[in-house]
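Tokens in:
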């Protein structure tokens, strides 16, 4: 990507890479898509990739690697202990995050497991800008509670605020005062806040959070899984960072945090994860659990090939021309949908384009899972697979009632460097058609509902024959077309 201007007007993001390996994808007829979504219990997690045209479920572990990452994988040093490959990764993490100690782990939630086991005690609270599903599950399983301290801007679907992922400093102070410092395990900040639409925090806000942590002597923990997008937005939108390099901004962020953890399925375009810190005591406590849950300290559940790819991937993440591809494609898609009147989260964030299902399907109450219904409907009419991010993904209250999500979003993740602009245009076309036919979409009900993280394996049924009616309307309008 670059800031290249087009002479004849239309401004589109321009890739700064070329494709050298491709994978065939299938666009099945609507009749098969109807069968497939029924077989999947109307849960897009349960679809088979063979039935999917554009997989916009997630960016996790599915970003395109560079030729240099692929090449590095060939020279991986396969040894259980003391692998040279690990040393390379260790050095790179220490260089980029400027932390002395690094613990490799198999993915992001493994870091959350170990951090929560060590630092969350029953009855304690973890304040954060916003929760992520696996983060919350680990904190809750260890007896803690999550308190979300977002600004009033965060939940506004349409906004021009550049940093909707910021924490509200007054509310953070008030929360700590109310419960007392001893009740707080640590403060967590999530980069590129996933569940509110990939929205960033500002470096300035993180500095203020740090001051609060200093005042109360609390640890600040950064979830850096979506840091790449957040770095791009800080560089673009925060005046004082305009002249800083991506690496300098990363260093400045990391300096403010006691513990940094990440999913390398997102950050670094590989698969794996890890935790780094300068706090030796914290490091030693977490280290004890790594061989128990992850593996020896020089691989932590990661394959050596992935560690090689990650080392290069982290270095490439420090290039603005690399990390701007996702946000620029997402901005393009979001802008095109806005032009067609489709309700989306603005400003466009990182991670993906987010449709506002609450407005898209304003005839459905939250208990009928509008975002889940929209995910099923979009797959049906396009073969595009998105992910529900709303009430369907929440855990029920202890009394069995629904936890109504703050937002009902359909997330269309943009795996980095994977889809072309024409594919994005196809998705926009089908979404716009679906919006015109939104009245045909009905609700969903769980028929099999797991207690924890129910959205992964839960099965649902349609509340009427709306999927058949939608498929029939598709045939009517598109004729023989796929
Ligand atoms: N933190 C954030 C902000 C995440 O987005 C994720 C994963 C994790 C932690 C957990 O990392 O998957 O490597 O265990 N998000 C994926 C997603 C699952 O699709 O958004 P993991």
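Residues out:
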């Amino acid at each position: 990507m670059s800031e290249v201007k087009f002479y004849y007007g239309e401004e589109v993001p321009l890739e700064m890479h070329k494709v050298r390996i491709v994978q065939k994808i299938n666009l099945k007829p609507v009749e098969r898509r109807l069968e497939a979504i029924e077989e999947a219990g109307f849960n897009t997690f349960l679809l088979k990739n063979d039935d999917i045209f554009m997989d916009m479920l997630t960016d996790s572990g599915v970003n395109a690697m560079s030729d240099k990452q692929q090449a590095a994988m060939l020279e991986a040093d396969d040894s259980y202990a003391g692998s040279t490959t690990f040393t390379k990764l260790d050095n790179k993490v220490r260089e980029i995050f400027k932390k002395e100690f690094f613990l490799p782990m198999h993915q992001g939630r493994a870091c959350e497991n170990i951090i929560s086991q060590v630092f969350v005690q029953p009855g304690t609270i973890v304040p954060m800008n916003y929760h992520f599903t696996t983060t919350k599950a680990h904190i809750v399983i260890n007896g803690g509670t999550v308190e979300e301290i977002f600004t009033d801007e965060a939940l506004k679907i349409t906004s021009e605020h550049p940093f909707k992922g910021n924490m509200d400093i007054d509310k953070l102070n008030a929360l700590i005062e109310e419960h007392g410092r001893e009740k707080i395990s640590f403060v967590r900040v999530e980069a590129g806040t996933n569940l509110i639409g990939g929205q960033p925090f500002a470096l300035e806000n993180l500095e203020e959070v740090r001051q609060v942590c200093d005042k109360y002597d609390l640890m600040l923990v950064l979830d850096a899984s979506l840091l790449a997008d957040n770095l791009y937005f800080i560089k673009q939108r925060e005046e004082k960072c305009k002249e800083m390099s991506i690496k300098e901004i990363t260093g400045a962020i990391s300096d403010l945090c006691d513990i940094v953890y990440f999913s390398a399925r997102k950050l670094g375009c590989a698969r794996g994860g890890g935790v780094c810190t300068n706090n030796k005591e914290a490091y030693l406590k977490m280290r004890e659990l790594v061989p128990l849950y992850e593996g020896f300290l020089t691989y932590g559940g990661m394959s050596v090939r992935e560690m090689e790819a990650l080392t290069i991937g982290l270095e490439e993440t420090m290039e603005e021309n690399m990390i701007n591809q996702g946000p620029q494609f997402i901005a393009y898609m979001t802008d095109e949908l806005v032009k067609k009147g489709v309700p989306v989260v603005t400003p466009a964030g990182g991670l993906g384009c987010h449709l506002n299902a609450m407005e898209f399907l304003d005839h459905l109450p939250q208990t009928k899972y509008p975002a889940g219904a929209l995910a099923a409907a979009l797959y049906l009419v396009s073969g595009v697979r998105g992910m529900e991010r709303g009430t369907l993904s929440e855990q029920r209250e202890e009394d069995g009632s629904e936890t109504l999500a703050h937002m009902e979003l359909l997330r269309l993740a943009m795996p980095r460097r994977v889809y072309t602009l024409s594919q994005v245009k196809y998705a926009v076309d089908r979404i716009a058609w679906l919006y015109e036919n939104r009245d045909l979409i009905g609700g969903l009900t769980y028929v099999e509902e797991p207690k924890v993280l129910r959205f992964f394996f839960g099965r649902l049924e349609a509340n009427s024959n709306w999927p058949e009616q939608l498929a029939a309307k598709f045939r009517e309008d598109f004729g023989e077309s796929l």
